[in-house]
Amino acid sequence: MVTPVPTQDPGAQPGSVPPTKRGLELIMLAFAAIVVTTALVLVELNQPQGVTRSVLYDGAAYLALFGAAHVAVRWFAPYADPLILPCVALLNGLGLVMIHRLDLADGASAASVGDPVPAGNLPHQIAWTTFGLALFVAVLALVRDHRMLARYGYTCGLVGLAALALPGLLPSAVSEVNGAKIWLRLGGLTIQPGEFAKILIMIFVAAFLVTKRDLFTTAGRKVLGMELPRARDLAPLLAAWGISLGVLVLEKDLGTSLLFFGIVLVLIYVATERAAWLVIGLIFFLGGATVSDMIFKHVQQRVTAWINPFSDYDGAGYQMAQSLFGLGTGGVFGTGLGAGRPDLVPEAHTDFITAAIGEELGFVGLAAVLLTYLLVVMRGMRAALTVRDTFGKLLAAGLAFAIGLEVFIVVGGVTKLIPLTGLTAPFLAYGGSSLLANYILVALLLRISHAARSPAASAAPRKPVAPLAEAHTEMVQRP
Amino acid sequence: MNTPLRRVALAVMGMIVLLLLNATYIQVVNADTYRSDPRNRRVLLDEYSRQRGEIIAGGLPVASSVETSGQLHFLRRYLDGAMYAPVTGYYSLRYGSGGMENAMDSVLNGSDGRLFVRRLSDLVTGREPSGGSVELTINPAVQRVAYDQLTRRGYTGAVVAIKPSTGEILAMASTPSYDPNQLSSHDGAQQESAWNADTSASRGSPLTNRAVAAIYPPGSTFKLVVTAAALEAGKATPATPLTAAAALQLQGTTTLLHNFADEPCGPGATVTLKTALVRSCNAAFAELAALVGETDLRKQAQLLGIGQQDLAIPIPVTPSTLGAIPDVAALEQSGIGQRDVALTPLQNAVIAATIANGGVRMKPHVVRNILAPDLSVLDRTDPEQVGTAMSRFTADQIRDLMVAAENSYRNDGKIKGVSIAAKTGTAEHGTDPKNTPPHGWYVAFAPADNPQVAIAVLVENGGDRNLEATGGSLAAPIGRAVIGAALQGAR
């Protein structure tokens, strides 16, 4: 198993400038473009009308889009991790291909019963991708040093909390879709403020923990050889727990609730280095989960549909059962892109897009997607390990872990490992808010990894007492 | 801070590994379960886009796929749907498949290994892939007579006809039947209303194939098994004296087991086994069963195929059973085919066919050949001996008893110049057996000296004759008509 350990300290060898590895990033992006274009060709090949040359233009447009992002990284964060952006590009591209593929299926079944062919989700998702990449560039350009974010910690926390709570407090007419009250409907646009709140709250918790770290490490009583924190220091964790439950009750969103609590818990653990927090958090979680299962009908439904989806095949278990049928039919190598029937799974383009991938690309394809996610998380963790400042470490760890946990919750739900909770797979699934928020997340991760790998940052972790030889690095900021 | 960071990284790896293990479980270990689940419409949708093979009986395609212009490229059509439905089964987009459509699915849809070379060449030549065909052993003339005989009077029941020397099933009818064309319709509403009607108990559950999927008390037809057990074990001969009393007190109880119409079996105190079988005396056979004993009875039943769990023709067959026999009283009741003894009509036909075949039991089957799409033979079913259920001597003795029995029955539809060996049965059932119309049975084979066909006929619940019904009045005429049709074909 590979543990992300810095193999070399770039600052240890003065005089030699460490490579930026931007060339590698470009090569990997081109590779992603080839994979995605090939996937698109396969989808088209399995359609009655066959492949047209437009596929090539699509591939070129995709490469241009991510090429632009690459140029921005070159410009604003030259030392950023070279693998994160290509991985994200690959996932995003694969998501676009799958959404296109599902659009085709919807069109075909509409045509077969004589209905007009629907416009499809692809144009929206392409627009969101473009917009997301623009945000990505904007964040890289605006946040020149991640440490400045710590200064806005409380602001972020307040705004994040408001964003998280808003849909739950608004009337259902504005905020409810498919039973979950997590939306804001503004004119024709629907956004999920929770996706953005996730990042804001992470910034707040990281900043808060940096200043109040000592508080959490004050020992309380010792039980079973483990030092428990003092009761009063439990307040922040209790608050996070309460907010999670609030999300669960008011917004009926199990996924966000779980994600939020998990991130806060891990950040507290990383900051304090004490496993006692994990144990306490786990007890809180189990308590909350048990009580919710007893009290709330929407939680019970999910649990029943998880334990045996076939007991209520025509009702609550239908979607889960279809997902399992799809995954089983796909088997090891899948039916082939465009040759399966992933459209039989309800919501295949959002929550169940990984089931669609598992069906058409098989276990092999699903494993490749999961390992791509793992690569992103590990590169993020590596940035957390190498960056010098505590805030950067905590924020990078939180951002990276958020992706990992979200993937676990989504894919675990789709593959019946855990109850279905209704999050979407980052970058793959259809959904504007998720895409935008995750591009912001990745931009921040790249910013921190740039700080971790750049010689300037490593030589001058806190105070820029710039030695002459490195003074010129500041000139990069000249437009 | 780096230690907890590494641990968190490890935890994420652990989570991904968990996901991969779980995905392996679903997509590799359990994949076939999900793939072949009848509710999984993927496979069916995929199959609809290919030309499915035909099911052929006597040169006629009784099930075939015709091309349509709709999204589902092919429509499954059935010739004389209701008549062949117990064999062909159905093929429905919404409700999966049954019968041969299900049992031979891999051949019909083209995925069977025997079609592999053909598939390869399809791939190379770009020819549209299509499924293989299945040629049945069913004889359309016999099947038609069997079906018409059952439906003419609106009977609920089943007929099975077997060729004793090979085990080939010549006819398999079950009524009430259903039209599989309705279930294979591309119109979802039509499928649904047909399905609801075909599974409705108040309409007699037409989808149930009574020939192989339902078990009934065999009544007096079971006396053949008891006789075989007694003769094989050397515990009796056709001349063995048995009680002639009109009723027998079940051992250890005060309950009386009566002969039919409560008549004595003969003028004296005893009658021979032969007379007891010809006159079908219950008291005598209860006594004989007790004489044979449970062990030998079970052994004989098993040799005849009763209790076999995995028989498939290739349509799966519900196992027949003797039930529990806790004491002698139960054994005495079981000896006349009552209590918990229950057989499928197919099993009863197999018993007749085994006696006809000199005691050698042949595996019943309904597939003669598997054909490639160009109708060349890919695989043929060779007759398979399952085992020797009784000696030829015993079989011949029972045959003679059955000929004598047939000659004593009412002359109802007998065929001139053909010697039939037969046994009737009138089985009580239900919670109030004396006031519930009985099931009528007729098992037979012919010609007695050179058997070409063995049959079992079952008519449920007294047919149209209510409480007065007997196997002889209900089932025997049907059986003789089926035998007539089969012998006409054999000549």
Question: What can you see in these coordinates?
Answer:
- The complex is a heterodimer of chains A (479) and B (491).
- Chain A is mainly alpha-helical and 479 residues long.
- In chain A, the strands form three sheets. In chain A, strands 1-2 form a two-stranded antiparallel ribbon.
- Chain A has helices spanning 22-45, 54-76, 84-112, 122-142, 147-151, 153-169, 172-175, 193-217, 235-251, 254-272, 276-295, 297-307, 318-330, 353-360, 362-386, 390-414, 432-453, 455-459, 468-471, and strands spanning 176-177, 180-181, 184-186, 189-191, 219-223, 226-229.
- Chain A is 66% helix and 4% strand.
- Chain A folds into two domains: 18-145 and 309-458, no CATH class; 152-295.
- Chain A starts with 21 loop residues before the first helix and ends in an 8-residue tail after the last helix.
- Chain B is α+β, with helices and mostly antiparallel strands and 491 residues long.
- Chain B has a domain at 219-367 and 384-490: Beta-lactamase (3-Layer(aba) Sandwich), CATH 3.40.710.
- Chain B is built from 18 helices and 19 strands.
- In chain B, the strands form six sheets. A six-stranded mixed beta sheet of chain B has the order 3-2-1-6-14-15.
- The model of chain B has no long low-confidence stretch (mean pLDDT 88).
Give a nutshell description of this structure.
The complex is a heterodimer of chains A (479) and B (491). Chain A is mainly alpha-helical and 479 residues long.
Fraction in helix of chain B: 25-40%
Question: From the alpha-carbon coordinates, what is the Rg of chain A to the nearest angstrom?
Answer: 23 Å
Shape of chain A: globular
Alpha-carbon distance between the two ends of chain A: 43 Å
CATH structural architecture of the domain at 219-367 and 384-490 in chain B: 3-Layer(aba) Sandwich
Number of helices of chain B: 18
Q: How many strands, what sense, and barrel or not for the largest sheet of chain B?
A: 6 strands, mixed
CATH class value of the domain at 219-367 and 384-490 in chain B = Alpha Beta
> Which outline of chain B best applies?
globular
Write down the secondary-structure element order of chain A. Answer: HHHHHHHEEEEHEEHHHHHHHHHHH
The name CATH uses for the topology of the domain at 219-367 and 384-490 in chain B is Beta-lactamase
CA gyration radius of chain B, whole angstroms: 26 Å
Termini separation of chain B: 94 Å
